[in-house]
Amino acid sequence: MKRDSRLSSVLHALLHMAEHDGRMTSDALAQCLGTNPVVVRRTMGLLRKQGLVDSDRGPSGGWRITADLDKVTLRQLHEALGEPAFFAIGHRQETPECLVEQAVNAALDDAFGEAEALLLKRFAHVTLADLAKDFARRHRERKAAKD
Amino acid sequence: MKRDSRLSSVLHALLHMAEHDGRMTSDALAQCLGTNPVVVRRTMGLLRKQGLVDSDRGPSGGWRITADLDKVTLRQLHEALGEPAFFAIGHRQETPECLVEQAVNAALDDAFGEAEALLLKRFAHVTLADLAKDFARRHRERKAAKD
DNA sequence: GCTTCATGTAACTTCATATGTTACGATTCG
DNA sequence: CGAATCGTAACATATGAAGTTACATGAAGC
């Protein structure tokens, strides 16, 4: 199954932007992500609607984070992307007449509902600042390993 | 994203088989599920490999459960289907050189890993017998509502 | 103003994959 | 032998993320 990697993408982009002074163009971000600038604009546009970033046109234009790193959570980003489905496994029919299928759906909803609640809770706790801190740690470690 | 509904399908099929004396044909199961008999054979074939069901050809042939209902767990069925991915959200790149992407992957792996562990634990606890019991309860309730 | 650099966005293509369908061979029962 | 049934390959369809092309819009600098 093809997985939605937009959350991964925007996190990657936002952290690069956080490490970078001034604006970054769609082209530069696309290079960081190994993708196409139009894809960047499309995806970042969703974050702009939530006021997390802004963009400017023309020379010296590009993208910039407008929110506090320690205020932006994975949950918010997931919402900004339109709350894509977490799970790749689902029902065959949403509102079945058949009682057998109802029992099956109930059992699956139970398990997946619990897992989703856990994910949402975790997502609400993790901020961009947390990721930036982890990145900085990895950066120090790599540097130390070189010396 | 298109979700894999095979787990839902096999549960539905197995419960119908459990309620039914003797073998059920792929055609009959396909009608229960609202799908095609070839899809049924394809999917049930995976369960046969694990010894959960068997099939006979010719007239009076069809499918039959060979395992104990209270021994078969959702976990086993998920395994029999080849352990399809639980999540529809993933990394953009599996083993990135970029430290930013490594930090992103680590954070996502953390959250999704925990959710997956929870799901596997739940799946290991739920048996076909549990579902059959829940179905019977729904059946009684519908009957009571009619009277 | 003109040129250049950048975003905004529509339209289209590509790719992956679950699901559905057709076709036909193999096996079993009566 | 003939009908019923599974086994399986090959092909078709559908969906949605991701990538691409094309062009319009707007801003900065000369």
Automatic annotation (TrEMBL), chains A, B:
<dbReference type="InterPro" id="IPR000944">
    <property type="entry name" value="Tscrpt_reg_Rrf2"/>
</dbReference>
<dbReference type="InterPro" id="IPR036390">
    <property type="entry name" value="WH_DNA-bd_sf"/>
</dbReference>
<dbReference type="Pfam" id="PF02082">
    <property type="entry name" value="Rrf2"/>
</dbReference>
<dbReference type="GO" id="GO:0003700">
    <property type="term" value="F:DNA-binding transcription factor activity"/>
</dbReference>
<dbReference type="GO" id="GO:0005829">
    <property type="term" value="C:cytosol"/>
</dbReference>
<protein>
    <submittedName>
        <fullName>Rrf2 family transcriptional regulator</fullName>
    </submittedName>
</protein>
<dbReference type="InterPro" id="IPR036388">
    <property type="entry name" value="WH-like_DNA-bd_sf"/>
</dbReference>
